[in-house]
Amino acid sequence: xxxxxxxxxxxxxxxxxxxxxxxxxxxxxxxxxxxxxxxxxxxxxxxxxxxxxxxxxxxxxxxxxxxxxxxxxxxxxxxxxxxxxxxxxxxxxxxxxxx
Length: 99
Prior knowledge:
Elements: H1 2-40, H2 51-94
């Protein structure tokens, strides 16, 4: 019975994580849409998107995506470095006499 409770709890946690990830994605998508729209759409006299606006939006999305990816990579690099430093510090403390 305890195994079922743990399994159900695990599934609930996974579902909550998925909902949070989806919300985070939507926030990023909305931020990207708003920023690129505000920066690139100038002409409201026509229903058509002008070539310059289309190019601007494409460049905006590409740059935003690349920057987001680079930030994520850098964050992962820093996390790995911090984990390595924490492990080294823990190992060093474990080797101290009298511990």
